[in-house]
């Protein structure tokens, strides 16, 4: 019966660095890019051998600029790849040349081992083992298959016993590590009693998946484990059927079928080239493709990320027209939220989404507030000043054309834009403010005659009564402002897109189109 590891899944906070390491440095093939099945707004990448064979796969959920997790018991702690035994010296040289942190070589269980750190500080183990690849990669020293994972457990005996359900048997032990052996690979169960528990987040391995020969065996396993709290039903992940269960010490385990495999929606020669989204999200596929982070494969042109005061992300269209729209999300949003809306306004604009730095009970905002309509004035001014520094850095660092620059903000993001236009004259010269209010208690006077503003308010917006004060202040400083009230509340509608699109087309930033 087929046994062993199907794949291992981790979480990365930097998609480009992740691709550079796994597809570039390690030489694995990117075999699949898809929106996540639990959250389609989360990019999911799969790397493996030349055919994406089960037993070679490592995948990553992309939490771009996400919070860090913590290594601890109840989790997979490291991934081991088998590499040709004679290549260990070459891997040391490659790591030194690439400035990848490397430890070793050392001997473990009779094998030569190197440990590396990936860009998220995950431990990657290269094990000298002449196990053949199912579908060899072009690089002669590239990993051939998954060799092992290490599991940190505060109940190592129970964990090891649980793994026998998936075809593993007791192997040798070294120190605090009990090795479990399958037909194709090993699991090292490390006694982590007294260690801290793990915390999910970037830089953490989320789970290990074991191979199920077919759907019947998978469903029988579901019946065998039915008494275990938290076991899931069988899920259709398109590339395999699977279920999830936690072993006694808490590590998340998936049981996944080999079939139908990664070639079910892409031919072998084109694996990893197309971004797919789950079928249930097909009606928003276009929006998701705009929201999900972009990256370059080895050999493709890369766009360096500048170190600026705010977390940010670009969406670069295939046929850019030279214009850029800078996006400021509403409360609880992030840098990708407004990208679909802005893309509908102008599909050829480069989009630069920015994330607010203030947080309130874990949600993103642009400045602090004391209650729903009382704002921290000092924080508004400080964040407005920081945002101006961000714009200056983005213009110089990314070569943005200031004459073709527009801003679009929603709710709290629009409020910050309004404050910037009243505190730092001439920085924001063209802006669309969606459901904005006057956040400043003492707006400043200045020359805003070169500023064009479109304000779109909701007739039923509970905060709408605070919008006229912002209109008056901007007009008093000479801004050319158009204000429209829509049959809407605080939420956005298709009419917002239509009006903003028509207005922007008649502004200097788009006049040359």
Q: Your description of this structure?
A:
By secondary structure, the chain is α/β, with parallel strands linked by helices. It has two domains: 5-281, 2,3-Dihydroxybiphenyl 1,2-Dioxygenase, domain 1 (Roll); 307-510, Alpha/Beta hydrolase fold, catalytic domain (Rossmann fold, 3-Layer(aba) Sandwich), CATH 3.40.50. The chain has ten helices and 28 strands. It has a nine-stranded mixed β-sheet. Strand 2 (29-35) and strand 3 (43-48) form a beta hairpin. The longest helix has 22 residues, at 377-398. The model has no long low-confidence stretch (mean pLDDT 96).
- Numbering strands along the chain, what is their spatial order in the largest sheet? 14-15-16-13-1-4-3-2-17
CATH topology of the largest domain: 2,3-Dihydroxybiphenyl 1,2-Dioxygenase, domain 1
Separation of termini? 63 Å
- Can you give the mean pLDDT? 96
> In percent, how helical is the residue content?
10-25%
Oligomer: single chain
CATH class of the largest domain: Alpha Beta
- Helices, by number, come to 10
**Coarse shape:** elongated
The major pleated sheet works out as: 9 strands, mixed
User: What is the beta-strand fraction?
Assistant: 25-35%
Write the layout of secondary structure elements.
Blueprint: E1 5-12, H1 15-25, E2 29-35, E3 43-48, E4 57-62, E5 75-83, H2 88-97, E6 102-108, E7 111-117, E8 123-128, E9 145-153, H3 156-163, E10 169-174, E11 177-181, E12 186-191, E13 205-212, H4 215-224, E14 235-236, E15 240-246, E16 252-260, E17 275-276, H5 285-291, E18 312-315, E19 324-328, H6 339-345, E20 350-354, E21 358-360, E22 363-365, E23 369-371, E24 374-375, H7 377-398, E25 405-410, H8 412-423, E26 430-434, E27 452-458, H9 467-476, E28 480-486, H10 494-505
Protein name: VOC domain-containing protein
Domain VOC: 4-129
Keywords: Aromatic hydrocarbons catabolism, Dioxygenase, Iron, Metal-binding, Oxidoreductase
